[in-house]
């Protein structure tokens, strides 16, 4: 370690740690885009086969991975502010805590990384595959907020509509619909709330039945 | 570690000697002819490595690649001769454009830019972008978006370290941190 001069302050070291986390995050972002695209494809294929559960699971994993990334993004922004603070010594404790938290999240993301091979496993049939999928389902249960669960189910709906060829002006191999731009049947604020309530009810019922 | 990005859409243009002169692949016996030949090979190797952003070549791996083997002429430069060429490049005569990685002489760094030249290039970029006094990770220097149009983008980490070592000796930078999570501060 270069400790020769004290030209490197503890603030510098904190900034280095923060930037190293940022670099890791950027690398994950690149990798994860490949994986989430594949998850979406898998969801599509499963839907086509009528395997709605699998499709939902794929979308859930994708949502979870995306939420991890945006969590870390937000944390990094916070860290950046802290480390560039001139009164660094005062906020040093916060920075250390922030870095620790960041590392935890990165570890989680790392676990998700398993890579394409892990994602492909979702396509497998058979008892073992099904067991694994159930495990993942359970692990995910409670990891997504209600809002995120809603968003996942919206995504599933959107995929279904898209696949049943409902008046889409685009050629079939154009890029897919993202969360914001598919206009379902015109929903009023009341409709949305109603939907959310119904879904929450269904989920509670499912949990109780499990 | 070799960085090999064969760019199919922008193929390397080989010299006339390589493409049309079979004796180019046999080491000449006459001293003056040999000198000229070694110089030509040195230039060719440097140009090739610069084009494909290769920083290190291992003789075993490269002896059958198009750098040393011309399939059309059915001619290749044999490993012992490749070694001779690189020995030349290592020497003063060859302007120290190569450096053996170990004394086993199996692999060599090809300095189409010497570490000192890299040092200057990186220092200039840091200056221009107002990053003096900031902490940068080694990773972001070679892989970051900010350096994308720089010649050192995508560079081998070892080479970056050598370049930064030059700057450190001149007291213009200091590398710190551990293992592969290192950073550098420029003064």
TrEMBL record, chain A:
It is found in: Endosome membrane. InterPro entries: Snf7_fam (IPR005024). GO terms for cellular component: ESCRT III complex; multivesicular body. Residues 189-199 have a biased composition (Basic and acidic residues). Its main location: membrane. Keywords: Coiled coil, Endosome, Membrane, Protein transport, Transport. Transmembrane segments: none annotated. The keyword Protein biosynthesis does not apply. Residues 163-210 are annotated as: Disordered. Residues 11-38, 119-162 form a coiled coil. GO terms for biological process: late endosome to vacuole transport via multivesicular body sorting pathway; protein transport; vesicle budding from membrane. Belongs to the SNF7 family. This is Vacuolar protein sorting-associated protein 20. It comes from Lithohypha guttulata.
From TrEMBL, chain B:
The keyword Protein transport applies. Transmembrane segments: none annotated. The keyword Hydrolase does not apply. GO terms for molecular function: protein homodimerization activity; structural molecule activity. Pfam families: ESCRT-II. GO terms for biological process: macroautophagy; protein transport to vacuole involved in ubiquitin-dependent protein catabolic process via the multivesicular body sorting pathway. GO terms for cellular component: ESCRT II complex. Keywords: Protein transport, Transport. PANTHER family: VACUOLAR PROTEIN SORTING-ASSOCIATED PROTEIN VPS25, VACUOLAR PROTEIN-SORTING-ASSOCIATED PROTEIN 25. Belongs to the VPS25 family. This is ESCRT-II complex subunit VPS25.
């Amino acid at each position: 370690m270069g400790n020769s001069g004290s030209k490197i302050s503890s603030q510098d070291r904190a900034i280095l740690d923060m930037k190293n986390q940022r670099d890791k995050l950027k690398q994950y972002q690149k990798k994860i885009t490949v994986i989430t695209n594949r998850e979406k494809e898998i969801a599509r294929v499963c839907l086509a086969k009528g395997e709605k559960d699998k499709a939902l699971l794929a979308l859930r994993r994708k949502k979870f991975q995306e939420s991890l990334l945006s969590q870390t993004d937000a944390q990094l922004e916070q860290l950046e502010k802290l480390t560039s603070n001139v009164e660094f010594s005062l906020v040093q404790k916060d920075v250390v805590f922030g870095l620790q938290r960041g590392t935890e999240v990165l570890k989680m993301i790392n676990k998700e990384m398993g890579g394409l091979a892990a994602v492909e496993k979702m396509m497998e049939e058979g008892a073992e595959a099904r067991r694994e999928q159930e495990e993942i389902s359970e692990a995910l249960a409670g990891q997504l907020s209600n809002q995120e669960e809603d968003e996942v189910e919206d995504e599933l709906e959107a995929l279904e509509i898209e696949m049943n060829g409902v008046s889409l002006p685009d050629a079939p191999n154009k890029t897919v619909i993202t969360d914001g731009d598919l206009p379902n049947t015109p929903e009023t604020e009341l409709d949305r709330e109603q939907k959310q309530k119904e879904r929450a009810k269904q989920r509670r019922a499912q949990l109780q039945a499990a | 570690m070799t960085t090999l990005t064969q760019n199919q859409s922008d193929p390397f243009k080989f010299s006339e000697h390589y493409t049309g002169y079979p004796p180019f692949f046999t080491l000449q016996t006459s001293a003056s002819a040999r000198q000229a030949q070694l110089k030509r090979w040195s230039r060719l190797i440097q140009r090739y490595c610069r084009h494909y952003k290769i920083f290190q070549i291992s003789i075993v791996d490269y002896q059958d690649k198009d750098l040393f083997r011309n399939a059309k002429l059915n001619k290749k430069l044999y490993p012992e001769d490749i070694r001779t060429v690189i020995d030349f490049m290592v020497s003063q005569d060859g302007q120290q454009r190569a450096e053996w990685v170990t004394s086993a002489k199996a692999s060599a760094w090809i300095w189409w830019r010497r570490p000192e030249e890299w040092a200057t290039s990186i220092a200039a970029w840091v200056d221009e972008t107002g990053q003096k006094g900031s902490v940068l990770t080694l990773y972001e220097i070679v892989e970051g978006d900010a350096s994308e149009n720089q010649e050192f983008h995508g560079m081998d980490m070892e080479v970056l370290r050598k370049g930064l070592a030059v700057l450190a000796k001149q007291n213009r930078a200091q590398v710190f941190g551990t293992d592969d999570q290192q950073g550098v501060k420029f003064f």
